[in-house]
Amino acid sequence: MRRVTKGKESRGRVRFLSDEERPRLLEACKESSNPFLYPVVVLALSTGMRQAEVMNLYWREPKTPPEGAWGVVDLDAGRIVLHQTKNGERRLVPLVGHALECLRELAKVRRIDSDLLFPSSNRPRAGGAIKPIDLRKPWESALARAEIADFHFHDLRHSAASYLAMNGASLAEIADTLGHKTLAMVKRYSHLSEAHTASVVAKMNARIFGGAS
Predict the structure, then answer these.
(1) What's the pLDDT at 207?
(2) Within 10 Å of residue 5's Cβ, how many Cβ atoms?
(3) What is the pTM (predicted TM-score) of this model?
(4) Rounded distance, CA 119 to CA 122, Å?
(5) What pLDDT does 13 receive?
(6) Which one of 2, 45, 115, 133 is separated from 67 by 20 to 30 angstroms, measured CA to CA?
């Protein structure tokens, strides 16, 4: 085994919604027969949370915390508290703008028999808990309607990270937002950050030395 050359680790998939694809997908989600699809996608796209983290959100802390990822929404404070994440650490997620508006509207018509934000309509057996809704079919239908290919739900997380990079966030800030312990997982977005940095440096040089910005 010592003679076996170790292969290079993959940089990982980086697929994010273009400026043309994003409005098409959001419109298709809004037109979906499932009322949860649009707020779920908006929340994932605006926060970069994982699918399990989004689907296991509660309006208040459950009496019996579920296994796996889960969190609580605080509309007044404008934040989401993820008590259990993939890396095992508690994380605070800012809830702002359109995502906050969507959840405030959702809170007006929330179910009284479940504290889940996105509960399934299927009734559990006696003594069982209501589970999060399965949005696979509505999601696939929205992608087809928006004519978007080679795109998975997890790519919404990549999209959020890519938008952060293109808007000047450092790799450390992106890692903190997504809940990564190290920068290794966010290096795939470095070329986007570098493009922004080059633009900023060019503008600075144009201002102090003259010439086109």
Answers:
(1) 82
(2) 5
(3) 0.83
(4) 9
(5) 65
(6) 45
Residue 179 counted as domain residue: yes
- DSSP of 33-62: SSTTHHHHHHHHHHH---HHHHHTEESS--
Range of the domain at 101: 21-209
Q: For 107, phi and psi rounded to 5 degrees?
A: -65, -25
* Residue 130's CATH number: 1.10.443.10
Residue 201: both structure tokens together: 């440096």
Residue with tokens 């979906």: 32
Residue linked to tokens 């680790």: 9
Check pLDDT > 90 for residue 79: yes
List the structure tokens of 6. 């170790």
> What is the distance between the alpha carbons of residues 88 and 22, in angstroms, rounded to a whole number?
31
Specify whether the CB–CB gap between 181 and 170 falls below 8 A. Answer: no
Alpha helices (H) along the chain: 21-30, 37-47, 51-55, 97-107, 136-145, 155-166, 171-178, 190-209
* Count of the separate structural domains present in the chain: 1
Q: What angle do CA 70, 75, 77 make, to 5 degrees?
A: 100
Residue of 75, 17, 80, 23 lying closest to 50 (CA atoms): 80
